[in-house]
Design brief:
Strand 1, helix 2 and strand 2 form a beta-alpha-beta unit. The chain has ten helices and five strands; from the N terminus they run αβαβαββαβαααααα. The protein is mainly alpha-helical. It has a three-stranded parallel β-sheet with strand order 1-2-5, sandwiched between helices. Strands 3-4 form a two-stranded antiparallel sheet. Helices cover 51% and strands 11% of the residues.
C-alpha cells in the first residue's frame, strides 16, 4: 500500500452493516404499518452487509426475547462461506492488507468458480453475522445457480418483476422452505406436495371464509368441482410461500383467480 493511502472495505465490516440497517428499519416500519409479523426472514449473503442490515431490527427483538424469528442466510453453492467455511481469524481482502477479522471464511486466497451473482462471491462473512450464526441465532443454506435462475424466471413470469441474481437466491430458498412445509404437513398421508392433497382434506382444513369463496365460485360456474380443488391447492401453496399456517380469503381469491385464468 502506497504511503498516505488507506484501504477500506465497502462491505463485511461493522460500520457498513450500520449504514445498511436502514434496509431493515424501513422493512420493519412497513410490516408494522400493515400489522404483519414475519415468521421467517430470508436474505442473500455474500459479505453480509445487506443481510445484516435487513435483519438488524428483527435480530434485536430476538436477542431481547421479544420475538422468535427464524432467520436464514442463503449463499451460492460456489462460494459457501457459512455452510462450508471455518470460524477463524482471516484477512478481509485477497491482498492481505486489512486487519484480521474472526469470521466464517473459505480462506482469503479462495477464488470461487464463475457465478452470475457477483455480489455474493466474497470468501468470508461479516464478523457480526458470523458470531450470530456460530451462536445458533440464525441458519444458513447454500443453493446452486441453476436452481436460482429457475426460481427467478418463475418469479418474473408470475409477478412481473425481474429480480437481481443476488436477490434470486432468497427467492429460491423461500420456495424450498415452502416445499418443506408442505412435505411436513402431509407426512402422515404419504403426500409430498399440495398438488397431491385430496379435495376432502382441503375442505376440512381450510377456513370457513376461504371455503365460502370457493362455494361462490362454484355456484356462479366460475369453477368446476375439479377446478375448485385445484384453486384450493394453489391457495395452500400461496399460503406456504407467505409463511402462513393455512390459506385465508386473500390466498383463496388469488388461487381462484389464477385457476380461472388458466381455463
Amino acid at each position: 500500500m502506497a504511503p498516505g493511502y488507506r484501504y477500506v472495505l465497502g462491505s463485511v465490516l461493522n460500520q457498513v452493516l450500520l449504514h445498511q440497517s436502514v434496509i431493515g428499519l424501513e422493512t420493519k416500519i412497513a410490516l408494522d404499518k400493515y400489522g404483519i409479523t414475519p415468521d421467517i426472514i430470508i436474505g442473500c449473503a455474500g459479505g453480509g452487509s445487506n443481510l445484516g442490515g435487513l435483519i438488524a431490527p428483527f435480530m434485536g427483538e430476538k436477542l431481547r426475547g421479544e420475538k422468535d424469528y427464524r432467520i436464514i442466510a442463503v449463499e451460492p453453492a460456489s462460494c459457501p462461506s457459512f455452510t462450508r467455511g471455518v470460524f477463524a481469524y482471516d484477512f478481509c481482502d485477497t491482498g492481505m492488507v486489512c486487519p484480521l477479522a474472526k469470521m466464517y471464511t473459505l480462506g482469503s486466497g479462495f477464488i470461487p468458480s464463475a457465478n452470475h451473482a457477483g455480489g455474493l462471491r466474497y470468501h468470508g462473512m461479516s464478523p457480526i453475522l458470523s458470531q450470530l450464526y456460530h451462536d445458533g441465532l440464525m441458519e444458513a443454506r447454500s443453493v446452486e445457480q441453476t436452481s436460482v435462475f429457475e426460481a427467478a424466471e418463475y418469479f418474473a413470469r408470475t409477478e412481473g418483476i425481474l429480480p437481481a441474481p443476488e436477490s434470486s437466491h432468497a427467492i429460491r430458498l423461500r420456495v424450498m422452505v415452502a416445499r418443506q412445509t408442505a412435505q411436513e404437513r402431509f407426512r402422515e398421508f404419504g403426500w409430498v406436495c399440495n398438488a397431491q392433497a385430496t379435495g376432502t382434506w382441503l375442505r376440512a382444513n381450510t377456513s370457513t371464509k376461504a371455503i365460502e369463496l370457493v362455494n361462490h365460485a362454484l355456484a356462479s360456474e366460475r369453477l368446476s368441482l375439479r377446478g375448485a380443488d385445484r384453486a384450493m391447492r394453489l391457495a395452500w401453496t400461496l399460503s406456504d410461500l407467505s409463511g402462513k399456517t393455512s390459506p385465508g380469503p386473500e390466498e383463496m381469491m388469488q388461487g381462484i383467480s389464477m385457476r380461472t385464468r388458466l381455463t
